[in-house]
Amino acid sequence: MLKIKNLKATINEKLILKGLNLDIKPGEVHAIMGPNGSGKSTLANVLSGKNGYEIEGEISFNGIDLNDLKIEERAQKGIFLAFQYPLEIPGVNTNIFLRTSLNSVRKARGEKELDTLTFLKLIKEKAKELNIDEKFLSRQLNVGFSGGEKKKNEILQMKLLEPKLSILDETDSGLDIDALRIVADGVNTYKNKKNAFLIITHYQRLLDYIKPDFIHVLSAGKIIKTGNANLGEQLEKTGYTNLS
Amino acid sequence: MKQNYDFDIEKIKNLSQDEKVSRQKNLDLFYESGFPSKQVEDWKFTDLNLILNKNFDNISNEVNFESSKEFKAIENFEHNFIFLTNGKIISTNFDYEEKSKILIKNFHQEEVLNIDPSNTLVLLNSALSSGGFSIEISKDYKFKKPLIVYNCFSQDLKNKILNNKNSIKLNEGSELTLIDYSDNNDQNNFIKNTLDTVFLDKNAVLKNILIQNSKSNGHFYKYIKGSLEDGSSYENYILSSGLKLNKIEIEINLNKDNSSCSVYSALNLLEDQHQEIKTRINHNSPNCKSYQKIKNVLDDESKGVYQGKIFVEKIAQKTDAYQLSKALIVSDNAEFDAKPELEIYADDVKCSHGSTSGSIDSDAVHYLMTRGISKKESVKLLINGFLNEVLEKITDSELKIFLEKILERQINGH
After folding, report:
1. Cβ contacts (< 8 Å) between A104 and chain B: which residues?
2. Would the CB atoms of A104 and B389 count as touching at under 8 Å?
3. Mutate to test the interface with B, among A53, A76, A89 (most CBs of B within 10 A)
4. In this structure, is residue B401 part of a structural domain?
5. Which site from A13, B102, B127, B212 is most exposed, i.e. has the minimal number of CB atoms within 10 Å?
6. In whole angstroms, how far apart are CA B398 and each of A68, B235, B403?
C-alpha cells in the first residue's frame, strides 16, 4: 500500500529525515517510536503533503507517486492524518466541516454526495460509537474542546472518511485512560484486512490497546531497528539510548 | 473636474411654490461644495467626488417611478412587506398583523429631519427627495412576522440619482424586525441617497437588517439617524456585499437611561468594490449600552473602511460601550482602513475598542485540505466562519438560516 524508499526531507535547510525506508501492506499496523526530534512528526507531515519540505526519494501509495498529489487529493485517495495538535478553527461549525469533508472525498471517489439529513443520521451514529456528545457537533471546530475531545474528533473524522491508510500522530498524548480506551476501540473496530495504520507514539501504552504487527524505532531521521510487538515493551524498560 | 449635474427641482411632481423655494435653497447650498471629496474629514477614506467623476458622465434626478419589472419575493419565511420601486411605495401587505396597529404612508417630504447640515448629501436629499415610506407602530404592538422592505429599481437608471427619505417610529413597548432588502442586478451606474430616521419610544425593540441580494453597479449612501428612549433597543445588521460603492452612516442617540444599540456587519468585498461603515454612537444618558462588531473580508482590489466613534456625555455614567473591527485581507491589492474613536466626558464608564487585520491562517487551510477539501473551498469555509459569527445573536432560527444563506451567496460573489 505505502512504499517509502530512501526518503529525505529538509526544512529550513535542515535535513530531518535522512533516508527512511518503510513498506506497509493492507491489514497491517505499524508503529513508529523514537525520541523527541527523531523525525516522527516530520514523517507524518510529509505524508500529509504539508508545504515547506524539500523531498527526495520515493513515496508511492497504491502505485501512485505521492509527490504528484495535492494535499486534498491525498485525503481523497485514502490517506488520513490524525493530528498531534488538532487545530481550533473559530467560526467553522463542526457539522458543516465534517459534511464538506465527507462530500469532497465522496465526490472525488465518484460517489453521491450526502444530503444534510442523511449526513446527520450518519454522523450521529459515528459520534455515539466514540462516546462523543452530539452537542460538540454543532460547536465551532475544536474551539474550547479538551485535549481528549479533540483527539476523539480526529478519530471520528477517520471513521467518517474511511481511509485506506490512517496515520495517527501521537494520538495518545493528552488522553486520560478512558479516552485512550475509546480512541483505541475506535481504531480496533475500524481495522480490517484492507486498511492499514501507521501509529506514531512516544509510549508503549497506546500499543497495549492497539496491537501493532511491526514496531520501528526512528532515530536521527532513520529507522534503526524493526521488531514485533515485544520491541515496545523492551523499549519501555531500556529506553532508546541503550538500543544496539 | 466636476460632473455635469443635471439637477432640476421642476422634475419633481406636485410641489407647491413654497416647497420649490425651500428645495432650491438646499440645492444651492449643495452646489457650494458639491459631492464630498477626501478633503472632508468624514470622507477621507471614501473620495466620493473622485469616484463619481470616474464612473458618471452626468448625473440627473429625472426618475420614473413606474416599473413593470417582475420581482421575486422571498419564500423562505412568512413576512409582511412594503414594495418600493426607486424608493416609492408600490404596494404593501400586512396580512399577518393587526392592521389598525400600523400606520403606513408615503413619506411626508417636508418633514424637517434635523441632520447635520454640513453633510452635503443630506442637503442634496432635502433638495431632491421624492418617494420613501413612513411607518408608525402603535403602543405595545409586537409584530408577529418580520417586515421586508423590497427595494426594487427600474432598468433605466443609468446616470440617475435617487433621493429618498424613510421614517420608522415605534411607540412604547412595540417590536419590529425590519429587513431592508435591495435587489438590482443591472449594469447601470446609478446613485441612491437615502435618509432613514428611527425613533424608538420607551422599551421599543427594532431589529434592522440591511441586505444586498445581488451584485450591482449601484452607488449607495445611507444615513440612519436613531433616537432612543428609556429601555429601548436598536439592533442593526449589515449584509450589503455586492454593491460597487456603499457608505452607511449610522448615528444613534441613546437619549434616555437603559437604552441600547448594536451594529453588526459582515462584508465580503470583491473586485473593486468599496464599502464604508461609519458609526457615531452618542451616549447621552446614564446606564446605556452600545456594542459594535464589524467584520470585513477583502479580496481582489476591494477597499473596506470603518470609522467608528463612541461619544460619552458627562452625564452618561455607567456607560457600557464596546467596539471591535476585524478584517481578513485575502489579496495583496485589497485595503482596509479603520479609525476607531472614543470621546469620553464621564468618569465611571466601561469603554473598549479594538481593531485587527490579518490574513487567512495557512495552518487552518492545511488542516482542512488534509480532510479532502480543496484550497478554494477551505478558504471559503474559513471566510464563512469568520463572517458568520456576527449572526450569533439572532435567535429566530428561520431568519438565521435565511441570513446564513444570503451570506454564503455573497461569499460566492452572488
Report:
1. 371-374, 377
2. no
3. A89
4. no
5. A13
6. 45, 18, 9
Q: Do B370 and A71 touch (CB under 8 A)?
A: yes
Whole-model pTM: value is 0.91
ipTM score here?
Answer: 0.95
Total domains, chain B: 1
Contacting B residues, span 88-107, partner chain A, CB-CB under 8 Å? none
Residue B282's H or E segment, with its range, is strand B274-283
Q: Chain B residue closest to A161 (CA)?
A: B371
Of A83, A92, A105, the CB nearest to B372: A105
Residues of B in contact with A83 (CB under 8 A): 367, 370
Nearest C-alpha in B relative to A92: B385
Phi and psi, residue A113, nearest 5°: -70, 150
Q: Give the domains, in start order, of chain A with CATH numbers.
A: 2-238 (3.40.50.300)
- B409 within a domain of the structure (yes/no): no
Name the DSSP letter for residue B13.
S
Place of cell 477621507: B44
Per-residue model confidence as pLDDT tens for chain B (414 residues)? 456 788 999 988 888 898 899 999 999 999 998 999 999 999 999 999 999 999 998 999 988 877 656 677 899 999 999 999 999 999 999 999 999 999 999 998 766 666 677 889 999 999 999 989 999 999 999 999 999 999 999 888 999 999 999 999 999 999 999 999 998 877 889 999 999 999 999 999 999 999 999 999 999 999 999 999 999 999 999 999 999 999 999 999 999 999 999 999 999 999 999 999 999 999 999 999 999 999 999 999 999 999 999 999 999 999 999 999 999 999 999 999 999 999 999 999 999 999 999 999 999 999 999 999 999 999 999 999 999 999 989 999 999 999 999 999 999 998
Tell me the C-alpha distance between A31 and B184, whole Å: 61
Interface of A with B in 152-181 (CB under 8 A): 157, 161
Nearest CA of chain B to the CA of A230: how many Å?
A: 33
Cell, residue A203? 509510549
- Residue B173: CA atoms inside 13 Å, Cβ hemisphere, count? 5
What is the residue range of B42's domain? Answer: 4-363
Instruction: Identify whether B391 is part of a domain.
Output: no
DSSP string, B123-178: HHHHHH----EEEEE-TT-B-SS-EEEEEE--S--TTEEEEEEEEEEE-TT-EEEE
